[in-house]
Structure formats: C-alpha cells, structure tokens
Design goal:
Layout lengths: L1 H26 L2 E8 L1 H4 L3 H11 L4 E8 L5 H7 L1 H8 L4 E4 L7 H20 L3 E5 L11 H14 L3 E3 L1 H11 L15 H16 L9 E3 L5 E3 L2 H16 L4
Parallel strand pairs: 1-2, 1-3, 3-4, 4-5
Antiparallel strand pairs: 6-7
Helix pairs in contact: 3-9, 6-7, 8-9, 8-10, 9-10
Amino acid sequence: MRKLEKSFLFCLIALVFTLNISAQDKSKDKLRVLFVGNSLTYANNLPEIVAGLARSAKQPKLVYKMVAYPNFSLEDHWNKGEVQKLLAKEKWDFVVMQQGPSAFSDGRKVLVEYAKKYAEPIANAGAKPAFYMVWSSADRLQDFAGVSATYKAAAKEVDGLFIPAGEAWLEVWRRDPKFELYSADNFHPNLAGSYLAALVIYQQIYRQSPIGLSNHFRLNFEQEVDLPEKHAKLLQAAAAETNKKYGF
C-alpha cells in the first residue's frame, strides 16, 4: 500500500507541475494591459485599436481593461480608488497611464507624485508602469516640449516606460505639416491621431515594429474603420522613427 501511495503521490505532483507549466505557457499567449486615463484614452477607443493591431500582427492577444473618465488626473484616479482595486485583484503586464498635457509645474507635480504612489501597487500586480505622453491643444503647440518633459520625468521616477505618442505627432508634422491629427475641438484626436498613438503604444509594449501593420481597425463591436493606406504608412513611419529615439 505504501508503494502505491508513494506512486500515486508522485503522479499527483507530476500532474500539478505539468498543469502549472501549461498555465504558464498559455499565459504567454496574452498580454494584459490596464489603461488608466481620461478622454484622450477613451476617444476612439484607443485600447481596442491597440488590440486590433496586435491581432493583425498575430501577436499575443491584448487583454485589456480601461479606467478612464473625463478630465481625470492620476490624483483623481487615486482618490476614486477603482484602479487600486483592479491592481489588487488581478495580475497585469503593463499599466498605461495618462492625464492632461501637464506641461507646467502644477501638472508635472501631480503626475510625478501619483506615479510614485502607484508604483508599489503596480509592482505588486506584476506590472510595469508606462506613461502615455499626450499632446497640447492646437493653440498651444509651444507646450509640446513641456508635455514631453513631464511624462519623461514620471517614467524616470519609477523606472517606467515612456510612450512618446505626442512626439510622434510632431514627427508626422515634420513629414507633412498639413496632416490633420486633431478632431473638431482642436484637442482630442481624430481617428488618425488615435491610430498614431496606438502604433506607438503597440511598439513599446510588444517590442515590435509598427511598419506594415493593418490600416483596418475596430472602434467597437459595430463600427470598423479603414484609414487610407497612404496615411497609414506615413503614421507607421512616424511612430517607428519616434520610438527609435527611445531604444528601438
């Protein structure tokens, strides 16, 4: 009986080990990303565009959740507490965060301070923080440098990723000064602006070039969009060139 018991125990341990390995292998087929921000994240359903790019490139599936409310800063998210609950409950690979342009000292202080507050719960969730640099409004183009400096400072403070979407906008305008990235309010992105941001995010989190990605993407379950191929190629080249400055 003892020999049978030992044999059964050995088989049970082997089975558990095999199941664990299988679970680990399966987890490599997914990339879990929590998006935290405001309307510059939920406009045009940015996370879903990133997910569509990953599907088109046959990359590990992007499994995401988005916590985004109008005009929210990281301080507002911290006070609401929803993000902390998700971090405590689930494991993530990246937490992609943004607030407004924050080009000046007050906004920079908030972004850096709350980046530091979020650092521990993000680490406990197994994730890396990533800071999605946005852009200034069309009448404040001189603020782009300040926006970039703010998001770089937050990323440096917590050893996070700097996602230079706003700098990619500038790269597009260097190539075509008349290319339109703003929506009608001259602040939020149009479809091309969100697609460009998604390309930059995709390359940063998947570590793959955006060149040649699909120009077809889904905004929601009912609406699918095709960007003109010429425009998509320009945006892909601008995203790749911008990310090249940051280690690609």
